[in-house]
Amino acid sequence: MSFKEKCNIKVENGKATLIIVFTITICILAVAISIGIGTNKVAYASVEPEVQEESTSNLQSNINIIDILHKNTSSDYHEEYIIEEKDLEYITIYQDNPELPKGMVQVLQEGRDGSQKVTAKKTFINDELTGEEIVSNQIIKAAIDKVVQVGTGKYSSNYNVRVGDTLYVTADTLGILPEPNKDVERIMTIHQNSEVELLEIDGEWYKIAYSIYSGYCPANCLTYLKPHSLLDKDEGSENELTKDQLLARLSFDMELNSPSGLTLEQFRRVLSNNSQDENKILENNSDYFYYAEKQYGVNGIFIAAVGIHESGWGTSSICLNKKNLFGYGAYDRDPYTNAHSYTGYEASIDLIARVFAKYYLNPEGTVIYDGQVATGDYYNGSTLTGVNTRYATDQNWANAVYYWMRYLYNNL
To answer: What is the pLDDT of residue 304?
Structure first.
């Protein structure tokens, strides 16, 4: 065999050795990456290629399997899937009643939350929560709609009930409870138009006497007006604060779990004749921001500003096609499909006010509307900054909402 032939054999053997080493390296990297994925972490290959001449023996000795595994499994990013049972919020149905004073709210049927199993994907960087997305939900128990009558009579009423007053039940059925807590067993059930005596006022609860029984019930299920009676005189109107007084309350750091202080007429005024409201959605539903504020203690102007921002003054496809002014339920993976649908805008306004009161604006354990207790799941303070922390991924969300709040207050 000639010297040239021997050299060719050595060259071919060297090429074969390089191919084998390269193949082994690729396999090791593939295994390392698959392990990274299996631990819910994203693996990144960060070794910069270098141009150098090395013998095949040196190349093999530089391959450190442990080092490769460490680099591909030590990423700071990871995901977790959490399954929880949560409340399924009820829908509120509004009915006009010309026999009630203008703006008065009476409950005909108490709402009951259902329950649902929710799967959420949470993302972390350096063990800090950076994102949360609802992946799926399954209804376990259906919710019961709340039915509310709102007064459309000629006159407003400024009367405040007092201990000793005779009151009348507005709900179809009303449970008398041994304590101001909806979760306890009822003493008895009374029916619509039943006459009771007011014994004690405890926030959103009244202690009443009926026959030989006494106990608690939600205040908004009772009225001082006799059933089916028409007002025959002006009993006064709401105390209306001036524009300057209301503007003095406005600030970026104001507490949003308190009413704005605007009257029904002022809500109508600030939400009317806005050129950007081309479909008149905000204008035609202005009353429901007032009703939501009265029932749930959330600033109604804040709710309106959120609706304006999220829907582009009622022009978004979710708003127009699904009567969903806030894009509620529009998860990032498929916003339009997942967004909730409503039969009317008033239902979406009512629900979002309850969501803010229950989850965002009040700490866990706070007694809120209808005797319910806030869960505070996403509570980070009752200001715009606090809500922005968990409600919106856009860090400029709070500034945008405050812009529209100022716009509306200045529209008085």
So the answer is: 97
Distance between CA atoms of residues 291 and 279, nearest Å: 22
In this predicted structure, the answer to whether residue 300 has a pLDDT above a threshold of 90 is yes
Domain count, the chain: 3
pLDDT score for 41: 36
Mean pLDDT, all residues of the chain: 80
Please, what is the Cα angle at 62 between 58 and 66, to 5 degrees? 155
Q: Over range 327-334, report the average pLDDT.
A: 72
349 token code pair: 């306004």
Q: What's the rounded Cα separation, in Å, for the pair 141 and 164?
A: 40
Does pLDDT of 232 surpass 90?
Answer: no
Same domain as 296, residue 337:
yes
Report if residue 289 sits inside a domain: yes
> How many residues belong to the chain?
412
Interatomic CA distance for residues 82 and 88, integer angstroms: 17
**Residue written as token pair 């591909």:** 72
The boundaries of the domain holding residue 382 are: 238-412
